Amino acid sequence: MSKAVIEAFLLEMRKRHQREIDAVALPEGTLEYVRERIEQRDSETLLFMLKLGYLMGLQTGYAAGRSGESQIPPTSSTRGPLQA
């Protein structure tokens, strides 16, 4: 996957889901921690964080599917899956 494809995907997801993403409250200090990692050029930790979030999302989706949930909340809901 090229850098351009990744950028286009992220821009599209931002357009579609900005409200839901903005509603997510991260633990206090998260922004400062991420900025520190960027300043230190610690891409290894940043990639680990991305992979961890991705893996947790996969596991949540799998668990929801296995539990027999057949109804998906509307995309305007602040809970439930984001549609790519």
Summary keywords:
3 helices; mainly alpha; single chain; extended; 84 residues
Structure write-up:
The chain is mainly α and 84 residues long. The chain has a domain at 3-60. The protein has helices at 3-22, 30-39, 43-66. The model has no long low-confidence stretch (mean pLDDT 87).
In short:
The protein has 84 residues and is an all-alpha fold.
Q: What's the helix and strand layout?
A:
Layout: H1 3-22, H2 30-39, H3 43-66
Low-confidence stretches: none
Helix content: 55-70%
The counted number of beta strands is 0
Report the biggest beta sheet as strand number plus sense, adding barrel if it closes: none
The SSE order reads HHH
What integer is the average pLDDT?
87
State the oligomer: single chain
Question: How large is the count of helical segments?
Answer: 3
Radius of gyration: 15 Å
Terminal-residue CA separation: 16 Å
Strand share of the residues?
Answer: under 5%
Overall morphology: extended
Helix/strand structural class: mainly alpha
